[in-house]
Amino acid sequence: MEFHLLSIYVLFCLALRGSNASLPAEVYWKSMLPNTSMPKALQDLLQPEFKNGISTSTGDGGSNENRYGTAYWPELRKSNKVFIPSKTTIFFLYDDLLPHKIMTLNFTKSNKTSNFLPRKIAETIPFSSNMLPQILKYFSIKPSSKEAQFAKRTIEDCEAPNIRGENKYCATTLESLVDFVITKFGKKVQALANEAEKENREQEYTILKGIKMIGDNQIVCHKQRYAYAVFYCHTINATKAYTIPLEGVDGSKAKAIAVCHADTSAWNPKHIAFQILKVKPGGPPVCHFLNCDTIVWVPN
């Protein structure tokens, strides 16, 4: 029954797109946040999909393997393996957040990603670890598949208790994402994401003048790898968010979002940030760039 409704909704959405009309989720955004521009990273997730299954994307944006923003507490609870990224800069010390500093970055945008479901459909689908078999069956996901592992991990992380200083929420629709932000900040907010002229190209970038601290009270929402768009949103004490203007060696410009954590004492001692930066929990402030489908919300 739900799949039949979803199929009808997809056809309805395509008809709306053809007529330049707004999708229901867009209408909700405009009614609730009339003065807030929707980042392209969210706009791209409103396109209807025909596939009744989980995305097979392995790009930076959708992968839970490289979850730099949400994995600092339980990431190694079942394994002692530490995933060390390539030469791309992810973590860096606050003291390195200076003009003329050079960092290697790749603004990765996946060609395949899971989109938002309409709210009325998403609310009929369970989102609970004890209902995982039914969820996998609904989306035709093999229990032994990698996609099933990602789905299981996403739900477990959403159900896990908060770490000290964290307040989190998992949004399974665009509407619930908007509602959560409004409960924290009200309707006068900005929604920010990375912007880059060149995507999917690793190169050296120079930090330009114009670094801006956009807030010390923000909500960061990370897109998870799941059958449809799910965002892990959290607020963390003692953090500041920055917009960083950049210029690549090819002359292309970008504006990256980074978050700096002043208090890392509650982080997992084996977190990859400590491995890369050679520091310990509770040491100097640790900063990290955000993925291209991560959204940062700050009050105006």
From TrEMBL:
Annotated BURP domain residues: 91-300
Q: Which domain of life is it from?
A: Eukaryota
Stored Pfam families? BURP
Q: Which UniProt keywords apply?
A: Signal
Signal peptide (UniProt feature, chain positions): 1-21
Q: Does the keyword tRNA-binding apply?
A: no
What is this protein identified as? Answer: BURP domain-containing protein
